[in-house]
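Summary of Year 1 activities. Much of the first year was spent building the evaluation harness for sequence design. The harness presents a backbone, in tokenized form, and records the residue chosen at every position. We chose the following record to illustrate the format because it has been used consistently in internal testing since the harness was completed.
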């Protein structure tokens, strides 16, 4: 596992709540719309270094964002994209609906799923098939993001009017590179 883990400070929701009070007082939440300004649905990793509000400069209301371990296209992600497909089809009867941008990243902790011991105990812990967890490992983000683009594009529940693109975020350079255009 290449992810650097340093000893964290104690959990601190109070600091986050203080920031929320300043946010609410600033009024910047007002006027945000439910339809995303950039017509984007971002799927990426839950790693705190990989927050698309920062590395994509997303403002409030710009995009839908789903984050999970590795930013993988799981059944739950397919269901979520299908849900938004169904909602937007009602608003936009023709033409493109939105774009799903899948973004995997370098130094991803999901690489731990390639470790036999880790994967076996995690599979037992969550009651999952070990073989399916092996596929969730992110060792080569260019390869995993390409296979996830294919998986989402071929999901029958996802409208063909949804574009799907694949990208890699480099946590060292800060640059996002497109590997599969939408
Ligand atoms: Zn990650």
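For this record, the design step produced the sequence shown next.
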């Amino acid at each position: 596992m290449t992810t650097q883990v340093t000893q964290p400070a104690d959990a601190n929701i109070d600091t986050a709540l203080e920031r929320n009070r300043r946010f609410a007082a600033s009024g910047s939440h007002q006027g945000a719309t439910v339809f995303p300004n950039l017509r984007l649905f971002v799927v990426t990793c839950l790693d705190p270094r990989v927050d698309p509000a920062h590395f994509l400069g997303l403002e409030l209301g710009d995009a839908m964002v789903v984050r999970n371990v590795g930013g993988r296209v799981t059944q739950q992600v397919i269901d979520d994209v299908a849900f938004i497909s169904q909602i937007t089809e009602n608003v936009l009867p023709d033409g493109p609906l939105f774009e799903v941008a899948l973004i995997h990243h370098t130094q991803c902790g999901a690489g731990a799923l390639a470790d036999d011991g880790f994967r076996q105990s995690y599979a037992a812990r969550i009651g999952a098939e070990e073989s399916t967890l092996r596929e969730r490992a992110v060792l080569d983000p260019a390869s995993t993001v390409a296979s996830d683009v294919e998986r989402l594009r071929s999901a029958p529940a996802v409208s063909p009017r949804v574009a799907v693109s694949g990208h890699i975020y480099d946590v060292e350079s800060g640059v996002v590179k497109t590997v599969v255009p939408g």
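The chain has a mean pLDDT of 94. Quantitative recovery figures across the full test set are reported in Table 2.
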